[in-house]
Write a structure and sequence with these properties.
With 120 residues, the protein is mostly helical. It is 41% helix and 8% strand. It has seven helices and two strands. Strands 1-2 form a two-stranded antiparallel sheet. The structure holds zinc ion. Zinc ion (ZN) binds at residues 22, 24-25, 27, 73-74, 76-77.
């Protein structure tokens, strides 16, 4: 069974347990997802900056590890990043101001960069 974001239930539990804080700025996350608009709300973040909401289903079909790609971050980090590659986004004023960079982000983000984004 999948939630409305197409994320299998067991994966959702896993990422919610792991990502108790924004994976970027470490702000404590408030659930449920996206209910209204406060910037502290938890949003689903696709580390590979694919925008389509059905992408999780395609990761599963492609055999990609969803829990290495899908994370949780706050709404303000999510909107700031948009679809930028992580390394480009880290250069932005937003990240510099909040000290968000490779060394400060959550382990799941570092692992993602090490495994996938360095190849870009
Ligand atoms: Zn954040």
């Amino acid at each position: 069974m999948a939630n409305k974001f197409g994320i299998p239930h067991d994966i959702e539990i896993l990422i919610r347990k792991r990502d108790k804080n924004c994976v970027y700025c470490h702000k404590k996350m408030i659930y449920p997802f996206h209910q209204s608009n406060p910037i502290d709300f938890a949003t689903i973040e696709h580390l590979n900056h694919r925008q389509d909401w059905n992408s999780v289903e395609s990761y599963v079909q492609e055999g990609l590890p969803v829990d290495e790609i899908v994370t949780i971050c706050c709404k303000s980090c999510n909107s700031s990043r948009g679809s930028k590659p992580l390394k480009d986004w880290f250069e932005s004023q937003y990240c510099q101001g909040k000290n968000i960079n490779y060394n400060t982000v959550a382990k799941v983000v570092k692992n993602y960069i090490d495994k996938y984004e360095q190849l870009l």
